[in-house]
Amino acid sequence: MKESFLQGMTTPIKSQATTDLIDVLSPYVTFEDVQANTQLHLSVDGVNLCYILLSGLVKVGRSTDDFVISSITTPNILGISNRVPHESGLYIETVSEARIAFLPTLRALEIIAQNNAWELLAGHMTAIASNLYKKSVLMSAPTTYDVMKFQLMALMQEPEDLRNTTSTAKYIIERTRLSRSTVMKMLSQLKQGGYIDIEDGVLKAVHRLPDKY
């Protein structure tokens, strides 16, 4: 994969509709500051929940295997579609302190109906679908090295606070099916080749990566 392609595919799509939809929902909820490393489940006791994320670093994971599905930019809304299976095990985890509110998904949809905000919901869901498509394309990359390149570029797109406190190897392993030995070997060789800068396990810079490993 060309680096320009990777750059575009690892840049999250943001929508003004998401911000406007948050403005519609906010008067009906109470925001709280949630501490880092807190897990919030998208389905509790058979009830799907909608989370409104105003600020902070957040990721979405799967409890069945602790797989990290994606980092989430804020502000954002998760769980609004009411199509998450109760048994999915999906959760939100705060990486830093985050300002979050939640309400039952059905209640959120009622508020959207009352405010005739369906167009905003459609715009928000389009952005989510586009980001999921980007991730699926890159996760189905033809080679292990292509998957590694994607994760390195994605990590460089993360906020500096996250990058400076995250092990590069751990970040990649959590988000892929690659073995630790494979990840460590590739990182070592890319560092030796001068393609990446890593200090104490933390990714500092990505230079022009070779097209092939």
UniProtKB/TrEMBL annotation:
Protein name: CRP-like cAMP-binding protein
InterPro entries recorded: cNMP-bd_dom_sf, HTH_46, RmlC-like_jellyroll
Originating organism: Scandinavium goeteborgense
Ranges for domain IprA winged helix-turn-helix: 144-211
Entries under Gene3D superfamilies matching the protein: Jelly Rolls
Pfam families named in the record: HTH_46
